[in-house]
Design a protein that fits this description.
heterodimer; A: alpha/beta; 6-stranded mixed sheet; 6 helices; globular
Chain lengths: 220, 479
């Protein structure tokens, strides 16, 4: 009896420490890309609504970053705002308020870019998400998925998106898509193949932002 | 691929092949008849014997278990009954002590009242009116020889004085009656007081009588327990089942309370231990912390009731000296109050967090803040705080049904186990009987398969018997 007490205490302690050690594994990290190229920049208010949804849904301990997709997007400079919410709910609510202010100001004076470097933004997003060591990693792409690279930008190499879920939001149809829908479908199929080849766990397209916002995040 | 006709001797003639096989099989089975009968007999015998043995063991174990349960049940019930009788005696003793103390005063009061009544009664005795004084004067007048004015005047004077005396006497008589009525009226409260005293005494006697009856009943039960009476045992077992059902119901209600309590403090606990820490895949640390607080409250309640000697789950606490026990009681109470205070503040924090989150949601949805009435909006907060403070104390009383469950569960499990063992024993015994008979059925079934060789055997034997009989008869006739 005298021996069993310390042994059981040690076992319980070890179990407790091992169980509590991986708290990040239960957290969620979201990296949202907002396309600011050409006419798509006008839809930034819609993107702000999506950010608001994410702010309302994410829990203490989760991470969120919003970045714009520009001519060359493999840079931290394109990150508009990023935060890892505090473990305490009261602090995380304050952080969410501050985040919202930043996003609102970004939405007010957004400038359209000439090109759209989605691949560069994806690599940057994957880098950020891997640093967070979150259990669920999601890249949300608010774009028409039409990549346009300027001269000298190299992106035709395999990328690594292992363990990351990709969600394409509001993939609007271009004028040419209307004429030949195969272009739109091919574009989506190409992206799906590319991200799946890169090791993404899932590929989801959400166009109905009014009713299908729940599909953005993995339910826990 | 295996040909499905490969087992046939003559694939072209299946019927002949089957017949040949059947004859071969029959011959083989006939040859193996005795050993096969032996095997069937042995296997069935083995099953019968083993099931019989196990069934016997089960019945024996069930009986042992029943006796053990009985002794535990009776011991526990004797303890409870002794405690109840003790308490009943104490109550009677208290009543008697109190009444005996009051009795001299009561007796004195009664005696005083009786004396007063006697005195009043004596005073009420009717006093006859005094004999009229004029009777003598009338006699003197009647003896006068001659008439005239003198007797007439005398008579007139006498008449006057008689009238006067009559009036006076009547007045005196009335006054005396009035006084007696007054005395009688004054006796009324005394009578009432005596009556009240008598009713009081009657009531006390009635209480004593009911207590004595209760003691009698308890003593009868106790005697039944001492005598290990089966009727008493049955009654106690049924009582244990009822106790378990009632206690379980109360425990379920208490669990509902604990769940509400948990919901009240789980969210604010995340503010203390963090909302994103998990112990397992789905178990948050904050949830566990809230659960621990609730369990601590229940434990403190248990210790409090234990030190108050309401429950007796821990013999160590029950056997503590009064000073230590009082200290433990005080400590448990203080802890319970502290925990209730913590819970109340957590409930307040919960309300604040919920309000903060709602405000953020409104901001995110760009909605206008709701119009709130000051005191009306504070009602849920006050309700939560009160619930947070009260629920731990309510939860403390869970120790009483818990004790009941612990005690009655042993009896119930014991009874269920005994019945299960008896049931299993019966089933095994029945199986044994079936197998004993089944051996013969199997032997007969086996013999049906080899009926033709058996018929041949019987025919041969009969032939042999008849030839032997003929030989013997020839030998007999020759001799």
């Amino acid at each position: 009896m005298k021996r069993s007490l310390p042994v059981s205490l040690m076992v319980f302690g070890a179990l407790f420490v091992s169980a509590c050690g991986d708290s990040r594994m239960h957290s969620q990290a979201v990296y949202m890309l907002v396309d600011t190229s050409g006419s798509y920049a006008k839809q930034v208010n819609k993107a702000a609504r999506v950010v608001n949804y994410l702010l309302a849904t994410l829990n203490p301990g989760d991470s969120l970053a919003v970045a714009k997709v520009e001519t060359r997007s493999f840079t931290e400079k394109d990150i508009v705002a990023k935060v890892t919410f505090d473990k305490r709910p009261s602090q995380s609510i304050e952080q969410k308020r501050a985040f919202k202010v930043k996003i609102d100001s970004f939405a007010k004076d957004v400038h359209g870019s000439a090109y759209t470097d989605i691949t560069g933004a994806l690599i940057q997003g994957a880098e950020y998400l891997n640093e967070t060591r979150a259990g669920n990693k999601t890249i949300v792409i608010f774009s028409d998925m039409q990549e346009e690279l300027n001269k000298g930008t190299v992106r035709d190499f395999p990328i690594d998106l292992k363990g990351i879920r990709i969600v394409a939001l509001n993939v609007s149809k271009l004028g040419t898509d209307n004429a030949d829908p195969r272009l739109y479908l091919d574009r989506l199929a190409r992206w799906e193949a590319r991200v799946r080849k890169a090791g993404a766990t899932d590929w989801v397209v959400v166009n109905d932002l009014e009713n299908n916002m729940d599909s953005i995040l993995n339910s826990r | 691929m295996i040909d499905r006709h490969s087992w046939l001797f003559w694939p072209d003639n299946a019927a002949l092949s089957v017949l040949a096989l059947a004859i071969l099989a029959m011959l083989f089975l006939y040859a193996a008849r005795k050993p096969m009968h032996g095997v069937i007999h042995s296997v069935c015998n083995l099953v019968t014997q083993s099931t019989r043995f196990i069934s016997k063991w089960l019945f024996l174990s069930a009986e042992n278990l029943r006796l053990r349960n009985q002794s535990v049940l009776l011991a526990h019930s004797q303890e409870s009954a002794a405690a109840m009788i003790d308490r009943e005696f104490e109550r009677v003793g208290n009543i008697l002590r109190k009444d005996m103390q009051e009795f001299p005063a009561l007796q004195r009061k009664l005696m005083e009242e009786v004396t007063r009544i006697e005195e009043d009664y004596r005073r009420c005795g009717e006093v006859p009116p005094p004999p009229p004084e004029w009777v003598g004067a009338l006699e003197s007048v009647s003896q006068l020889k001659s008439g005239g004015d003198i007797p007439r005047k005398l008579l007139e004077d006498i008449n006057k004085s008689i009238q006067k005396i009559h009036d006076k006497t009547v007045a005196e008589y009335r006054r005396s009656y009035e006084e007696r009525h007054k005395i009688l009226k004054g006796m009324q409260p005394v009578w009432r007081s005596v009556d009240k005293l008598m009713v009081e005494m009657d009531k006390k006697m009635l209480t004593l009588h009911s207590n004595a009856k209760q003691i009698d009943d308890d003593m009868t039960k106790f005697a039944g327990m001492r005598a290990k009476d089966s009727k008493t045992e049955h009654a106690l077992t049924v009582s244990a089942f009822v106790q378990l059902a009632i206690s379980s119901l109360v425990m379920v209600i208490a669990m509902g309370g604990a769940f509400i309590n948990y919901k009240l403090i789980a969210l604010p606990m995340s503010e203390m231990v963090g909302a994103s820490d998990y112990i397992t895949n789905s178990l948050r640390t904050s949830d566990v912390a809230a659960l621990v607080i609730i369990l601590m409250e229940a434990s403190m309640g248990l210790f409090l009731l234990e030190s108050l000697r309401i429950t007796q789950l821990f013999p160590k606490i029950a056997s503590m000296d009064d000073r230590m026990r009082r200290r433990l009681m005080l400590a448990s109470l203080i802890f319970l109050v502290i925990l209730a205070g913590i819970e109340s503040s957590l409930a307040l924090m919960r309300d604040m967090l919920v309000a903060d989150k709602s405000s953020l949601m409104r901001d995110l949805a760009s909605a206008a803040p709701p119009v709130t009435d000051n005191w009306m909006s504070n009602i849920p907060m006050a309700g939560q705080m009160i619930m947070g403070f009260v629920l731990p104390f309510a939860l403390a009383f869970v120790a009483i049904p818990l004790e009941s469950v612990v005690h009655s569960l042993r009896t119930v499990i014991g009874v269920v186990l005994v019945q299960t063992m008896r049931g299993a024993g019966f089933v095994l015994r029945f199986t044994g009987v079936v197998f004993r008979r089944f051996a013969r059925v199997l032997e007969s079934a086996y013999d049906i398969l080899i009926v033709i060789p058996l018929m041949v055997e019987r025919w041969v034997l009969a032939l042999r018997d008849s030839s032997t009989a003929k030989g013997q008869s020839k030998l007999g006739s020759a001799s």
